[in-house]
Write a structure and sequence with these properties.
CATH topology: Translation Initiation Factor IF3
CATH superfamily: Alba-like domain
CATH architecture: 2-Layer Sandwich
Order of helices and strands: EHEHEEEE
Strand order of the largest sheet: 1-2-4-3
Shape: globular
Number of helices: 2
Bound molecules: zinc ion
Number of domains: 1
Distance between the termini: 19 Å
Radius of gyration: 14 Å
Strand content: 15-25%
Helix content: 25-40%
């Protein structure tokens, strides 16, 4: 995972998860290495609120993944190295793999499934 120079995008809390999914794919398409960081800004008052945001984000991810089967997501704690991630509750990392011979040519170090039916969601 690379941080320097990778822009982050603040989660905009409008629209439904279909809008959010479309936005996620837009971000991925804008990125040369198919990598996007979405920051979930504070303030978030309760853990329940945070859970709800995370749930909605992952629902949107599921919709996006239905269109792009090689999309991957990680939800990580805020990282100081990430530009624009100050005052952030969570960071959602999106990446679209492109597998060539079991390796991703979109710049990550993951190794790809030869048989992706065995891959857990
Ligand atoms: Zn990849």
């Amino acid at each position: 995972m690379r941080f320097p120079g990778t822009p982050s995008h603040r989660l905009v809390d409008d629209g439904d998860e279909h809008d959010l999914a479309a936005w996620m794919l837009e971000l991925i398409d804008q990125s040369p290495d198919r990598l996007a960081f979405i920051t979930i800004p504070r303030p978030i008052d309760t853990d329940d609120e945070l859970d709800a945001i995370e749930e909605r984000t992952l629902a949107a991810y599921d919709l996006a993944k239905a269109e792009r089967p090689d999309l991957a997501v990680k939800v990580i704690p805020p990282i100081p190295e990430l530009p624009g991630s100050g005052d952030t509750a969570l960071v959602v990392v999106l990446h679209e793999h492109r597998w060539v011979g079991g390796r991703c040519v979109n710049g990550c170090r993951d190794t790809g499934p030869v048989d992706d039916s065995a891959e857990a969601a």
